[in-house]
Amino acid sequence: MIILRISLFFLILLLLPDWYIYRFHIKYCAKQWIRKLWWMPSICLLLALLVFVSFRDSFQHAFGIYLIVALCIAVPKMVFMLCDLLIYLCKKSVQCFIKKPMPLSIVHLYRLARICIPSSAALITCIYIVFGAAFGKEFFQVNKVTFISPDLPDAFNGYRILQLSDIHTGSWDDHGEALQRAVTLCNAQYPDLVAFTGDLVNSRADEMKPFMTILSQLHAKDGVYAVLGNHDYATYTHWNSEAERLANIDTLICREKQMGWEVLMNEHRILYRGNDSIAIAGVENSGNPPFPNRGNLPKALQHTDGMFKILLSHDPTHWKRNVLPETDVQLMLAGHTHDMQVNLFGFSFSKFVYPEHRGMYLENGRGLYVNVGLGFVMFPMRLGAWPEITVITLKNKQ
């Protein structure tokens, strides 16, 4: 279903700019071979897309490379189209305002602008996409935020939580060096607690084996706590039996524990500072279909009445579905969205799928923080939605 949605998106992204540029520019080219050649890149990409949709289980890695190539071709064309259209509309507006023919010098300037400005914008966009593909997935960013709640006990004022999410070890291949840099950067924040909000693997527990030594280096005063994400349930690959899939989940949890991580499966732990305490709770993935919905909030929050509570829940839709209306949890930490790994100048298509898709959201003094993830899945790039390490400082007053 996800691949089909992406396919429809790329169909529009490829054909609309091609039609526009051909209609207003290429069509008037004197050389016929240029007019015919114009459609070849998009035709090849569409044929390749048909192959990937038909045999997606056999070419998952290649599909990621395909997406990057398609973005490098289609997005600059879209940018060219939008810039060109804007210049054209500006000209029309000026003509309507002055109500007389434009001077020849202005006409020449207009024609030059319709070539230079859209072409330059398209070239810059292409360079930006190449940067995202080559370096973006390792362009780790530490985002520091503050969450204020009067319910926080005084002894925990200034408490620092480092949140990681969506590492997707199966996508890192031989990039252990990059993951080591990320872990070193995490430890340099000296957090009181590390919270991992799911999707450690793409599907199979074996994906994490090459990185267990690196990830076991994560440390904090009060330990590392984790929950499962939708990918951790291993539903994106073929298994010979349901028992084999369930055994894979057990292996994943066992290996997380071997790394020193505490996996919260609809349960909580109490953290103490002197006579004060807070609860750190975690639920299994709770998502809308087709994602698993195994979260059990009453079980996870049992015997925490009146306490300041931090909830780890992979899917941010859980916040408004259940957490806000059914609990008094003050702060929920989530991941899952990746901000679709592409965010251009603050805009991401993830906002049309997830109302809460990145950063901090507040409602009546209660908060949700959505981490856009450290890793990547499906296509090996990040653009604008840089891999994130979040440091959340808790305070009980301004």
TrEMBL record:
Domain Calcineurin-like phosphoesterase residue range list: 160-339
Keyword Transmembrane helix: yes
Domain of life of the native organism: Bacteria
The UniProt record lists the keyword Lyase: no
Pfam families: Metallophos
UniProtKB keywords: Hydrolase, Membrane, Metal-binding, Transmembrane, Transmembrane helix
Signal peptide extent: none
InterPro entries: Calcineurin-like_PHP, Metallo-depent_PP-like, Metallophosphoesterase_sf
Membrane-spanning intervals of the chain: 6-25, 37-55, 61-90, 111-135
Designated name of the protein: Metallophosphoesterase
